Predict the 3D structure of the following.
Amino acid sequence: MEFKTPIVPQANQRLSADYLRFDSAGAHLVGQRCDVCGTQLFPKTGICPGCQSEQLTDVALPRQGTLYSWSIVHVAPKPWVTPYVIGYVDLPEGVRVFAHIGGDPQTLKIGMPVALYASAVVAHEREPGTPLFTFNPVSAENS
């Protein structure tokens, strides 16, 4: 069975256009840190889930994390291409990200290190690409 990066029907409107940024070191996700209680969150929400403060500052989130859990999606609405893998990645400082997981599902293990990978994928043949991020397993040669 071949696993591919899924086609993205539309960008999630809850995420602002800058949820993914690129710099000289590569891509990183942009979350928020509460200026009152220090809670970090992703995606950006505009209000802290810990203390309900609206005093939030954008922060670059770490590129590496730990695979918390994952699942293979076999049935999805059109135009998604199945099968694909989704899961939760725990980043440092308490941020848990729901994302596509790359790599061969046969090699995935809960607790394994994963790293952010970002690319633009084509949503439809006639539309421009939409940024997509996945977390891929960190191999011995990548660390």
